[in-house]
Design goal:
Layout (H helix, E strand, L loop, with lengths): L1 H19 L4 H14 L13 H11 L11 E6 L5 H4 L6 H6 L2 E8 L1 E4 L10 E4 L3 H18 L3 E2 L2 E2 L4 H11 L5 E10 L22
Antiparallel strand pairs: 1-2, 2-7, 3-4, 5-7, 6-7
Length: 211
């Protein structure tokens, strides 16, 4: 709860600073960096549900992600009815995490879009393949995970795409349109345990101006 209050205070400071054009950069950056570095993969939950207002804010944060050509291919399915999990996630070895969580978020992408082509921007709208949907969905997923951390909750990015054995049961059970692909499955809940973040900083992987 303390972390949530700190984040809310930081947000208030940010909006106030932006309005006056006097950003308190050290204070804001400190809170943001703390949240990013605190993110971890939580795999055990106590089963408590997620309040509706919290869930909406998590999804708002997810949809604030950058998107190539601003196409926003994301479609999000929020699962809370555990009686459906055995069907929707048939054969998925993450089932225990799903059942223990407060909700399971299925992040999907529409892989096509309808608009005039770049070659003929004033021409008729045509259906085209969105070649950037994977990039967009990675950004959406990370935004969701960071928002979860800010609320003092836990989450785990479990892969779905490109594994047919994980994608097909979801597509069939949820009757997804043919062009919509389930990209990632993210259980969210109140952590049951004390999972700690990993320090992944490695200066040997940083290259300045040349390899």
């Amino acid at each position: 709860m303390k972390k949530v209050i700190v984040m809310m205070a930081a947000a208030a400071m940010l909006f106030g600073a932006c309005c006056t054009k006097q950003c308190d950069t050290p204070s804001i950056s400190g809170v943001v960096m703390e949240n990013i570095l605190a993110r971890k993969s939580v795999r055990s939950y106590n089963g408590d549900s997620i309040p509706a207002d919290v869930m909406e804010n998590l999804l708002r944060a997810a949809m604030a992600a950058p998107s190539g050509r601003d196409l926003r291919p994301w479609q999000i399915v929020v699962m809370t009815d555990k009686s459906q999990y055995e069907t929707v996630f048939e054969g998925n070895f993450n089932m225990q995490k799903f059942m223990e969580s407060g909700a399971v978020i299925i992040l999907c992408a529409d892989t096509v879009f309808t608009a005039p082509t770049r070659e003929d921007p004033d021409g008729p709208a045509v259906t085209q393949v969105n070649h950037l949907w994977r990039d967009d969905m990675g950004a959406v997923t990370e935004n969701l995970l960071l928002a979860v951390e800010a609320y003092g909750l836990g989450a785990c990015w479990t892969a779905c795409y490109p594994y047919p054995d994980r994608m097909d049961p979801i597509k069939k059970a949820l009757q997804l349109p043919a062009t919509v692909v389930p990209y990632a499955v993210v259980p969210i809940g109140y952590q049951d345990g004390t999972t700690q973040p990993k320090d992944k900083w490695d200066p040997a992987r940083v290259h300045y101006n040349r390899w």
